[in-house]
């Protein structure tokens, strides 16, 4: 066999998917053809690189939990990942010139608007948080664990998350603890503590802070206020339809309670 | 335009027909069989969906959709290969979603929806990964979809040609030729990115 016949077989040869007669032919050929031997080692290297560098992620715990519940017929149909936002629609290449043009336009707009990565990710996060808050209210699925007792709410997260959110009741300050739930935000399962001020529910989303995480100014969105604090090494984001002043007062109280020396 | 309208109608109704509604009923015996034969492949399903859709959130959504379908059609699962069976459903779900997203694009045009993966990935997460790994993953994301799926199934997940043929529903010969094209394209992309496999 000549090089032109051998080359298309190299991939299958590396994958050990050739019939033995063909395999022998390829083996014999690469033994004496340097160019094909080089092509063969390029094939091998590519495979090695892919296996070495493409991460083999595990499914997120929340997805796994949901899946187990679904098998038992216990999963709620609109599932954790069914966040209404963010919807990112991307063009598939080669579906026609107008799509390419649309994408080019989108790229130009992105540049023109000058959205920085941080601003964009803050907006996405703000949108996700508000969506999660609204969804909880709309579906009535506000709390997975309903308790005004911090010693019930805090342990409830054990085993459901790999961290423990700071929980305390602030009924004395007019912000009673109502419960907690798991939600899925910012590409991860997060703890949500549910407080209430008069008739206004307050969701506090908590996840471990990362070094180098952007410090983002709170942004109101669609009539909802957002307040962020770093508390005991945790990112804490409160979302509520409460007015900005009271929500800030709440978050100050919350942060102060867990401050060192308190 | 008539064609795309027709396609929209078809894809919408196809989606609605298969949309999850109501709890699917598996007997307790089926439940444990499902866990053992199908659910053990959840990680693979999640990874493949991620690489096909290039978006974590969409991928999780698609996996949930696919699992609900798998549960519903589990009675029809006779084969020995639960992984290939589940992946075929995941892959079809991903394709349906992409088609749907495409058709929506005209109505839901929003600049913030069109950023690439890098713009949306939290910076702290991107930094966690090695530079090479990130470059390779970017290159992989750049490979055209019909080629990307074969290379992901083969090189990342280690499926045999026969399994891949079952997942994407084409003859083995087609798997072989697509894989050859996929590798060639990936090498070109990597070389262009200056991260060529030397």
Comma- or semicolon-separated keywords:
heterodimer; A: 262 residues; alpha+beta; six-stranded antiparallel sheet; 9 helices; 17% strand; B: 198 residues; mainly alpha; 0% strand; globular; disordered N terminus
Describe what this molecule looks like in 3D.
The complex is a heterodimer of chains A (262) and B (198). With 262 residues, chain A is of the alpha+beta class. Chain A has helices at 3-6, 10-14, 20-32, 34-53, 61-71, 97-113, 117-139, 150-156, 244-257; strands at 145-146, 177-185, 188-197, 200-208, 225-231, 234-240. In chain A, helix 3 (20-32) crosses helix 4. By secondary structure, chain B is an all-alpha fold. The longest helix of chain B has 23 residues, at 82-104.
Condensed summary:
Chain A is an alpha+beta fold and 262 residues long. Chain A has helices at 3-6, 10-14, 20-32, 34-53, 61-71, 97-113, 117-139, 150-156, 244-257; strands at residues 145-146, 177-185, 188-197, 200-208, 225-231, 234-240. In chain A, helix 3 (20-32) crosses helix 4 (34-53).
Extended strand count of chain A:
6
What are the secondary-structure elements of chain B, in order, as H or E? HHHHHHHHHHH
Helix content of chain A: 40-55%
Order of helices and strands of chain A: HHHHHHHEHEEEEEH
Separation of termini of chain A?
Answer: 81 Å
Amount of beta strand of chain A: 15-25%
Give the quaternary arrangement of the chains.
Answer: heterodimer
Helix content of chain B: over 70%
Q: What is the CA-atom radius of gyration of chain B, in angstroms?
A: 18 Å
The number of distinct helices of chain A, counting runs of at least 4 residues, comes to 9
Average pLDDT metric of chain A: 80
Strand order of the largest sheet of chain A: 1-2-3-4-6-5
In terms of topology, how is this protein built?
The complex is a heterodimer of chains A (262) and B (198).
Chain A: H1 3-6, H2 10-14, H3 20-32, H4 34-53, H5 61-71, H6 97-113, H7 117-139, E1 145-146, H8 150-156, E2 177-185, E3 188-197, E4 200-208, E5 225-231, E6 234-240, H9 244-257
Antiparallel strand pairs in A: 1-2, 2-3, 3-4, 4-6, 5-6
Chain B: H1 2-18, H2 28-37, H3 42-53, H4 56-72, H5 82-104, H6 117-120, H7 123-128, H8 131-142, H9 145-156, H10 161-168, H11 172-192
Helix pairs in contact in B: 1-5, 3-4, 3-5, 4-5, 5-10, 9-11, 10-11
């Amino acid at each position: 066999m000549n090089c032109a016949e051998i080359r298309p077989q190299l991939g299958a040869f590396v994958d050990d998917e050739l019939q033995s007669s063909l395999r022998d032919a390829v083996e014999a050929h690469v033994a004496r053809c340097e160019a094909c031997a080089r092509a063969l080692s390029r094939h091998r290297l590519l495979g090695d690189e892919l296996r070495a560098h493409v991460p083999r992620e595990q499914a997120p715990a929340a997805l796994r939990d949901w899946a187990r519940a679904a098998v038992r017929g216990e999963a709620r149909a609109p599932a954790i990942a069914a966040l209404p936002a963010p919807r990112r629609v991307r063009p598939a290449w080669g579906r026609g010139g107008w799509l390419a043009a649309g994408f080019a336009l989108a790229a130009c707009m992105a540049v023109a608007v000058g959205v920085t990565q941080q601003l964009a990710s803050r907006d996405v996060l703000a949108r996700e948080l508000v969506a999660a808050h609204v969804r909880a209210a709309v579906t009535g699925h506000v709390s997975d664990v309903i308790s005004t007792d911090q010693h019930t709410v805090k342990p409830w997260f054990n085993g459901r998350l790999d961290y423990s959110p700071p929980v305390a009741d602030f009924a004395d300050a007019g912000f009673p603890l109502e419960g907690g739930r798991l939600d899925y935000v910012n590409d991860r399962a997060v703890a949500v503590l549910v407080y209430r001020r008069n008739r206004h529910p307050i969701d506090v989303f908590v996840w471990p802070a990362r070094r180098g995480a952007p410090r983002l100014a709170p942004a109101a969105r669609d009539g909802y206020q957002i307040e962020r604090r770093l508390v005991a090494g945790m990112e804490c984001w409160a979302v509520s339809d409460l007015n900005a002043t009271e929500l800030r007062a709440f978050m100050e109280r919350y942060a102060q309670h867990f401050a060192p020396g308190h | 335009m008539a064609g795309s309208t027709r396609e929209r109608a078809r894809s919408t109704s196809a989606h609605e027909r298969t949309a999850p509604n109501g709890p699917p009923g598996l007997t307790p015996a089926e439940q444990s069989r499902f866990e053992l034969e199908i659910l053990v492949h959840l990680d693979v399903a999640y990874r493949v969906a991620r690489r096909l859709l290039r978006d974590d959130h969409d991928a999780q959504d698609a996996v949930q959709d696919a699992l609900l379908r798998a549960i519903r059609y589990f009675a029809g699962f006779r084969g020995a290969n639960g992984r290939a069976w589940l992946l075929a459903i995941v892959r079809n779900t991903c394709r349906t979603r992409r088609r749907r997203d495409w058709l929506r694009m005209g109505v839901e045009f929003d600049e913030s929806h069109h950023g690439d993966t890098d713009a949306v990935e939290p910076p702290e997460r991107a930094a966690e990964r090695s530079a090479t790994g990130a470059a390779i993953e970017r290159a992989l994301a750049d490979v055209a979809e019909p080629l990307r799926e074969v290379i992901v199934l083969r090189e990342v997940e280690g499926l045999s040609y026969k399994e891949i043929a079952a997942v994407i529903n084409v003859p083995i010969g087609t798997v072989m030729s697509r894989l050859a094209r996929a590798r060639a394209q990936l090498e070109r992309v990597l070389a262009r990115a200056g991260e060529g496999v030397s």
